[in-house]
Amino acid sequence: EPEVTQTPSHQVTQMGQEVILRCVPISNHLYFYWYRQILGQKVEFLVSFYNNEISEKSEIFDDQFSVERPDGSNFTLKIRSTKLEDSAMYFCASRGIRGRNTEAFFGQGTRLTVV
Amino acid sequence: GNSVTQMEGPVTLSEEAFLTINCTYTATGYPSLFWYVQYPGEGLQLLLKATKADDKGSNKGFEATYRKETTSFHLEKGSVQVSDSAVYFCALSAQGAQKLVFGQGTRLTINP
To answer: Does residue A43 contact residue A35 with C-beta atoms inside 8 Å?
Structure first.
């Protein structure tokens, strides 16, 4: 069964460092998302991406964040200068077709710890 | 704005017990409603969904009914198994939106 793959599963980084979280969405999907979950809190939407551009972003997704789909298979989330409060589980998701009723497929998450 | 509220966890039950996890929502218009489940070490998986009022979503013995009058989408299962131990997330997708809005998740542990 096709699946969304995220790497690494766990990353520890020092405050102020740049991190790149990687995702390989399902191959024929067109819509891509990043969500995050700070420990003990809700899963929060960060950004959606379609047709090689951001289609929606939340207020969390400030200038420190960027997304890219560099080669048609990977979908990356970059945090330029990490802060302690960026520590969270980050989930990538993809969707095949437009429509709010269609299923979004999620990866297993990357746990980011900023020290 | 749109939001989802789930019952606080963790929830611990014995095998074969009846399960209810409450979920209520706030949204304009007619959202679609979802339950996602996260098993240990895995990603979020869609468990069931309902796209209009009075629809019942069901899968793997779990059910949830879209109740517009009470803005609720409670998850139920008649007889839980140890393998149902996981974190359960209620979510909505609002009219005209692509993103999901999640509740905080409820950790369920089933003891043999």
So the answer is: yes
CA B89/CA A1 separation, integer angstroms:
22
* Spatial separation of the C-alpha atoms in residues A95 and A91, rounded to whole Å: 13
Cβ separation B99–A48 shorter than 8 A: yes
Residues of chain A with pLDDT under 70: 97-101
> Per residue in B46-76, pLDDT tens?
999 999 999 999 999 999 999 999 999 999 9
Q: Are B97 and A100 in contact (CB under 8 A)?
A: yes
A98 closest CA partner among B108, B59, B97: B97
**Residues of chain A neighbouring B2 (CB-CB closer than 8 A):** none
The C-alpha atoms of residue B33 and residue B16 are separated, in whole angstroms, by: 26
Q: Find the helix or strand (DSSP H, E) in which B91 lies.
A: strand B86-93
Question: Given the structure tokens 């131990």, which residue do they identify?
Answer: B85
